[in-house]
Fold each of these.
Amino acid sequence: MSFFGKLFSGKKGEPQPTPSEAIQKLRDIENMLTKKQDFLEKKIELELDSARKNGTKNKRAAIQALKRKKRYEKQLQQIDGTLSTIEMQREALENANTNTAVLQTMKSASDALKAAHKDMNIDDVHDMMDDIAEQNEIANEISNAVSQAVGFQDVDEDELERELEELEQEELDKEMLGVTTPADTLPDVPSTELPEKAKEKKKQPVKEDDMDADMKELMSWAE
């Protein structure tokens, strides 16, 4: 069995890990291998320094240091390949996990849409829309009928213009002739004398001519 098979298969009868769990395990392995990379790179630098120091003094020790450096480099190369494989597998799992979530959401939305349309019939919808359009048309006709003035007849605009011109000409003629509108009728002159006038008459002496005339009239009436 391969390394990844041993890593994710588990014991027989155990439930398979979910995509999220598998992704997390791959990330843990990546972190572990990255730390080992850092360790090997440091070991390679140390062996290289040892080979330089012993190059002229101790040739045997220098060669052994270079051999260890080669082994570390080989291990580092293997880890690089393993990390590349793990990264590819993790990215594939992440994409698959994302696609699964998207498909599940789309399926849920599709089921909800089917449930919403379950009691709907396309013919009934068309009939309903036709009824709505018909009722709107009736409502518009009623509104137009109500908004029209009842018993109002159109007026001849030309006739009104002629009447207005006649009125203006009449006013102009009056201004030219100096004719003004007659004032209101004055009140009638009172028929009875004012009290002051009556007093003045009483104060005036009676003339003889007036007395003779009165006496003559009285005597003629007595006869």
Amino acid sequence: MSRALIEMDGASKSFGGVKAVNNVTFTIDEGGVIALVGPNGAGKSTTFDLMTGFQKLDSGRRRTMGIDTTRSPSYRFPELGVARTFQKVRLFPSMTVLENALVGGLAKFHSVSAAEGAARRALERLGLDDRADRSPAELTLIDRKRLELARALVPEPTLLLLDEVMTGLTPHEVEDAIMLIRQLVDEGVTVLLVEHLLKVVMRISRRVLVLEHGQLIADGTPDEVQADPQVIEAYIGVPRHEEVDDAGR
């Protein structure tokens, strides 16, 4: 049986009167690519924030690598083997590319030199090693995304959460991203992916979770999820039986 990496039990989060995540329960088990999808505003990024301590749970509990982390701050998670990127790239403009990557390893490694070594390896892997001494402001948006991904790889995570890393990429760049994700999986990293490119999601994921209005409405294989009437209604806006009825008229 696969090891549970993160367990969310009855997770809820509201902003004002809006229930962004509503009593969501699921377990992210070890191995392969798992996708978290849903229409805009479904609560995907907020769920990522709750999973990694960037938002506090209003109610519910969270366990990470078997440890209760319900009240743990975000900086604790790299120590436990969890790293992430953000939908909107978050970099330190006053630091160099290398320093931005190095920050990702400070919670994991016991020395700056060890963190720097890991940072240089991650930058080389993402094709940014020749810009290590530059400012992030000199990078293109795509390269800033690569830098944030490099920073997430520095602590050598067991679980990597990727929040829309393929948005804005060319088809060739998407294929490069897929290749990198598959390489990471081959190396033993479990990848949890939030992505709007559903064809990509269904192609590379072994399991897909679907959110709508902050609630988990489906959890299964890509084939199971694509055939689920609730998922079809969430994405198309028309219940499946109505589509069939209309087609027969």
Amino acid sequence: MDLSSERTLKGSDQLGNLSKDLQAQLHVETAIRLKLGGVTIGISESVVVTWIIMVVLVGLAIFMTHGLSAEHPGKRQLILESAMGWCRDFFYGILGEDGARYIPYLTTVLLYLAVSNLIGLAGFKPPTKDLNVTIGLALMSIVLIEYSGWHQKGAKGFFKSFAEPMPIMTPINILELGIRPLSLCMRLFGNVLGSFVVMELLKAVCPAVLPIPFSLYFDIFDGLIQAYVFVFLTSLFIKEAIE
């Protein structure tokens, strides 16, 4: 066997391994099986990891808010106030006073997505690698977006907005009801999955050196960026709906 044939076989093996790894990442394992009245209910791995994230966030909230003092704030309280102040200023700058009621939801989603994308560092599969999770988040956001428009404009103003800026745009505005959640869902899912593919390719090309700095980017910074982009776009859509 000549050198070129050997390289071709190695390349085929690497692509085959990448395909298997990708399928494994896309496959959602059933972590828990419950039998209720003869019916077996499967609870997926992404749901269990989400429960873990919920416990972590609730525990962190209890820890950070315990023993707060207006007269003598400690370092923990100052960190908490700075973080919450940044979130409020960021979302308030986009939404304004009319959209301030949605800041708690957006902050919660931001925290959940940030922890979800970083939890892979602890050995768990990020829930955002499950398409069902990203679809659920996108549907929750689009329901909130449409509700915000209904709440701000009333039923008449809400339906009238589909004919703006001119009646000929009505079909396109109706299509946006499906396009917006699809774009939110696939952007989040695609970026998380794409980072995995890039990392696997880098490991195949140069497993000793290249993956280290790129791992820091994809495992930490890219996950935080995707959380930021998701809530940023949701905020923009809410702002557009309430104007």
Amino acid sequence: MSMPMNFVKSFAVCFSILLTIKSSASQSLNTPEKERKAIKDFFNYVDITTDFKLNNMLKMTQSFVEQLLNSIPYDDRGNTAELLQQYIDKAENLRYHGVSIEEKENMLLELRELIALTRSGLEKQEKEDMILKQNMLGMFELLARLAIEERRQSEKFSKASSLLRRRFTSEGIQRHQQLFDLLYELEQEQDIVNREALFRNLKDLRAQIM
């Protein structure tokens, strides 16, 4: 029951923050204190929407790995099946317990490693690997769905970033020039690897200014 309640609570907070940003978009911020509050609200919104995205991605990847595991008859399961089960158990634990965004991101990275390891063993003649080889095509559908989720998050981020910029006076933008330059780069960048690097820079900058 904790998962639905946490989801509803987070959604309510996220919606409230976005309404605050929208309703105040036409009101210029005229003090450093108000600027810092607006930036804090923006980062809180990004945190919550990112958490939504990661939860959805973890659910998708967990479902995919479960399908792979279920395709292997119990008597034919070996080392690869054990790795799949370990991922499922860990993903389930992360989704239903309060963990950091970084832990969820690391879990998605573990999926890449798991898929790479699984694919590297498909030339074996073990029964489980021969079965998995027939079911790995589902990975392409998974990647497409993950890309859609990433694009939705990117659109939310760009919209919130634009609303934040509209609230700042020219003097306020100058005071936070590094932040707004970085936000602009993120809005323009399409390459996912470059975006990940820019988000790391944003995380470092956040630690400096908040």
